Structures are given as structure tokens and as C-alpha cells.
Amino acid sequence: MTRLFSARGWIALVAFAAALLLVVPVLALAVPEGSALHLSEYWVGLGGKFLCYAIVALAMDLVWGYAGILSLGHGLFFALGGYAMGMYLMRQIGLDGVYHSQLPDFMVFLDWKAYPWYWSFTEHFWYCAALVVLVPGLLAYVFGWFAFRSRIKGVYFAIITQALTYAALLLFFRNDTGFGGNNGFTDFKRILGIAIATPQMRVALFMLSAAALLGTLLLARWLVSSKFGRVLAAIRDAEQRVMFCGYNTEHYKLFVWTLSAVLCGIAGALYVPQVGIINPSEMSPANSIEIAIWVAVGGRGTLVGALLGAFAVNGAKSFFTQAFPEIWLYFLGLLFILVTLFLPRGVMGPLQRGKAA
Amino acid sequence: MSDASLGHLAAQGLDTTHGVVLYLQDISVSFDGFKALNRLSLAIDAGELRCVIGPNGAGKTTMMDVITGKTRPDQGSAFFGQAIDLTRLSEAEIAHAGIGRKFQKPTIFERHTVFENLELAMKADKRVRRTLFARLDSEARDRIASMIARIGLAGAADRVAGLLSHGQKQWLEIGMLLMQEPRLLLLDEPVAGMSDDETERTAELFLTLAGSHSLVVVEHDMAFIARIARKVTVLHEGSVLAEGPHESVQNDPRVIEVYLGR
Question: Cys staple from A272: which of A6, A82, B231, B255, with CB 3.0 to 4.6 Å?
């Protein structure tokens, strides 16, 4: 009960950490480019993207798998973290934009003469890093406060989160909102004054994402194996009983919901410099639904399942969208149906052999 | 309802100076025009074991919903002891104040072990921060272990609660209630689905609890009522039809007509 992982779990975790933090950097930077073992920038970037998705999947599993709160709007928190980091990266472009202006190209294009007030201080890295945590966290807290107080649950809650992310999508699509409209932010040059498009920076971002993922996994594991985690799972299974036991379930849900949003924000902030773009499509309802699919495929309420689900579904997506781009969505739909029919507890179901969550 | 008030209520203790633990006065509740409770008044003495009977739809479960904060009455007052106004508190606050409730259908945490079920129910500071860092000391473990023995689940501490028999689940739920150390226990059909042997042991348990606890037992099992009853309240159409010692209620012609006679 007090131990975070079994002995085998710790070995797997250390091996996973070593692969991400030692093997990948060596293969990408030390092994010469001609060698068969060399890891190209493409693969490092793709891997880093997957690590960010895996953080989101863990965050989703905390609220859905453990507390039973299905969110179909987690992409919003991810995107907000990404936009907060993107603001800083836009500031770092400096005079190197197409129009050689202090303002980002899209503001020059709109004929704006100065940054709007909400861009104040975004030239400072630490300010933006704080936004990465605070904006998704605050939005989730306020939204959750109203929703949980009103005892909105299940499918109603899920639908409202869809509406929330869709509303944000429409807001960010507007050019006048001041976040680059449908093009979003792109063409990043530097981070902390260091050029972004170098192999070293790619590996550094990859390792940061890996460290964030490992930290999230440990934190999530600690949470769910504490008494707090047992209360969460009890809320999922019989919320009334938990209330009649004397727990204020609103506070429990609000805590884990806000934490989950903050983790998504951090993942988004790590994602944006690696993929080089953030635009409103990250807020599209379909993106948020995909996050739920990763967790469902991997197995809810297991953490490791969420991780595997994020890697497996995104791996398949990368393959299909390159090899057979037109059938990817059919494949995703089929995958969801097959998992629901044959693996109701996800990939982790058969692996756990009847152990209860 | 802030977290702070939970701790406050728990520390305050219960004022039962007038010997009454629960007062319901003129409580009315209606759902879409249907009067589930109609000016119901009821008083439970400290240490009393009260049985409540009545036909389906008489308002027994709604009465429990009002007492535990699940349903707010349209009118009337509900006091726990002299000072605690139940109509102003949340479910969690009422539980903290010392009212435990067993549902009609056994409601336990099916995917948690027997031990964990009792751990979660155990009286403690149940705020988020304390729960995050909560650790079980050996005294708490002993209390859980002795409760497991008391509810006849010795050896099943690590069994997943969903795998228990119906009667065992009923007992586990009663055990969870007792772990909360309530002053008043509300028990909705506690022996439904129990074997005769389990029913008899439940009767014995309730009789030992009375005195140190107040109990309100809703049951349809008249043999069980006869076994434990001192004072019986008959509900009919949302208000009290008759109240008194078991024998006199049993022979009341109005009670026979609406309930017992069928």
C-alpha cells in the first residue's frame, strides 16, 4: 500500500528512464549520422511529441480512470499551455520576422502598432512559464468549481467540456483575439536566446519532456496509491457513499481536475517548441476525444495503460497518416470499436489478470 | 460549506441535554406535486432503538434523505441534538456531525478491499490535504482489524468487497458506519437478503449498539422488527400514522388496514 511500484515496476521504470535520458541522446548526438544506429532529428522530434501526449494521457487517466470524470476538453488545457509558451517564443523571434518588426508578423499584417496589454511581460521566460501553469489551472479551477458544485456528472459534464474547448477554438480563430488567428504561432527561432532548430536543442527538449513525463508518472502513482487515491476511486464507484462517509467530494474532484489541467498545460508548453507550431486546431473537439481514446485503448485507471495507449495510438496514427492518409480516421474508429468490444479494460486488462484497480 | 466548518462540527460534540438526539418538525417534501412527506414530526431519544415501518411510498427513504442532507425539505425543521440544523448542512457535514446512513441497497466500494472500505470510512480528518498525506498508525490498523472481526469478515481483510455475498456486504456497510463513530445510525432495510443466521446476529448487534448509539431502523421484515423493537413508528402517506410500543402498534386497526393486513 505504501510502496509506489513493485520491484519489477521499478526495474521497468529505471530501464524506461535510461532509454529516454541516456540511449536516445547518445544515439542522436554521439553516433555519427551515417551510422545505422543514428537517430535522426525527425525521430527525436516525433518521440518528444509522443512524450508530451503521454503526459496528457496520464493527466486524463487521473480524472477519468480514477475519479470517473470524463473530460472531452483536455485538449484545451494542452493548447493553452502551448499558447503561453508560444507567446514567449514569438517574442524571441525579435527582429528576425518577415517584416523585421518588434511585433510578430501576424500583428504587422493586422496593422497593429503595439502589443495588446495581455502580451505584457511575455518577453520574460519565467513569466510565460508561470502562465503555462496558471492559465489552464485557473480556467480548470473556475470551470470545475461551478460544475462540481452544481453536481454535473457523466455525459453532461463531458458535453460541457466539449463545448468549452469548441468555444475557445472559435475565440482563438479570430484574428482580433491577438493570438495569430487560424495560423497561430510558428516560425520560432530561439528559446532563452539559443537557436531552436539544432540537434542539441531538439535532444534537450526531448530530455526535458522525458523528465516531465517521468515526474508526472511518479506524482500520479504517488497520488493514486495514497489514501487520496482510494477516495478518488471510491468517488468514481459510489460517490454518495463517499459523501455519507463525511468527505466533501467536490473538493476532491476539484483538486484532481485542476492538477490534471496543469499537467496538460505543461505538456503543451513542451510540445510547442518541438513541433514548431501552435494553432487553434489543437482545441478542436476531435483532438480532445482522441485523448480519451488513448486512455480507453490503454486501459483506464492503470496509469501505465494510459502511457501505452498514447504511444500505441499515436504510433499507429503516424504510420497511417503517412502510408494511407485517407483511412486513418476509419482505422481510429475501428480501433475504438474493437477495443470496446474485445478489450473493455484496454490493453492492460488481459495483462492484469483480474486484479482490481 | 467550507472545509473549516467540518472540523468545527466534529469538535463541537453533540448537545443532547434534553435527551433527544433527532427532532423532525412539520417536514414536508414534494416531488412534482406528489407529497412524499406531509408535515412529518418525529423525535428520537438519545440511545433509543426506533423501528420505522410503513407501506412502499410512505416516505421512509425520503425521511432519511432529509435527515442526511440529500433532500432539502420544502418546509419544517430538522435538528440533530439541540443545536445542529440539518437543513443547512451538506451530506459530508452531516456525516461529520455524527449521523451514519446505511442504504437500502448495500452501498460499499466494490473495487476496494474490505480493509480499504473500513479505512475510508474511519473517523478522521477527511479534508483533501490531510488525506493526501494520511498514514495509518498501528492503533488505526488495530481498530480496523477488530471491526473486521466484529462484522464476521475475519480473514477477508484483503478480499475485494465486490466479491462478498449479499449478507456480507450488508455487514461491511454496517461496519463502515460504525467506523465513522456516529451518534445516530439510520439503517434502511439492513437485513434484506440476509440468511436467518445473519439476521439473528444483526439483531444482536443492534441491541448491543442501542444505548451508546441511537438507531433508526426501517424494515419490512416483521419478525426482525418483533425481535428488536421497543418503540415503532408507522408512516403512511408521508406522515406518522401511529407510534408506540410494538404490541400496541401491531394491534392498531388503522395500521392493520394500511400495512399489516395485506
Answer: A82
Set of chain A residues whose Cβ sits within 8 Å of the Cβ of B116: 230
- Number of domains within chain A: 1
Find, in chain A, the residue whose alpha carbon is nearest to that of B136: A227
How many whole angstroms separate alpha carbon A39 and alpha carbon A87? 30
User: Could you tell me the pLDDT band of residue A285, with boundaries at 50, 70 and 90?
Assistant: very high
Provide, as residue numbers in chain B, all residues whose Cβ is less than 8 Å from the Cβ of A246: 6, 92, 95-96, 123, 126, 180
> CB–CB of B14/B206 below 8 Å?
no
Closest chain B C-alpha to A244 CA, distance in angstroms: 6
Cβ–Cβ under 8 Å, residues B20 and B46: yes
pLDDT in tens, B199-228: 999 999 999 999 889 999 999 888 899 999
What pTM value is reported for the model?
0.92
What are the grid coordinates assigned to B67, written together? 435527515
CA-angle at A67, arms to A157 and A61, nearest 5°: 95
Of the partner residues A2, A231, A243, the one whose CB lies closest to the CB of residue B131: A231
pLDDT at residue A337 greater than cutoff 80: yes
Contact B160 A231 (CB under 8 A): no
Instruction: Assess if residue A65 is contained within a domain.
Output: yes
In a domain, A119, yes or no: yes
Which triple of cell numbers denotes residue A4?
509506489
| Residue A111: domain span | 7-288
Decide if A340 contacts A294 (C-beta within 8 A).
Answer: no
Closest chain B residue to A252, measured at CA:
B128
Amino acid at A291: I
Distance from CA of A227 to the nearest CA of B (A): 6
Nearest CA in chain A to B2: A248
Name the residue ranges covered by the structural domains of chain B. Answer: 108-181
Buried/exposed B41-56: b ≥16 CB within 10 Å, e otherwise:
ebbbebbbbbbbbbbe
For A:222-251, CB contacts with B below 8 A are: 223, 226-228, 230-231, 233-234, 237-238, 240-249, 251
Report how far residue A175's alpha carbon sits from residue A182's, in angstroms, rounded to the nearest whole number.
7
Confidence (pLDDT) at B262: 52
Cβ neighbours around B30 below 10 Å, total: 15
- Asked whether residue A52 is domain-assigned, the answer is yes
> A247, A252, A258: which to substitute to probe chain B, counting the most B Cβ within 10 Å?
A247
Name the H helices within chain A: 7-18, 24-25, 41-60, 74-93, 105-109, 125-149, 154-173, 199-225, 227-244, 249-275, 285-298, 304-323, 328-342, 348-352
Minimum Cα–Cα distance from B119: chain A residue: A227
Would A329 be classed as within a structural domain?
Answer: no
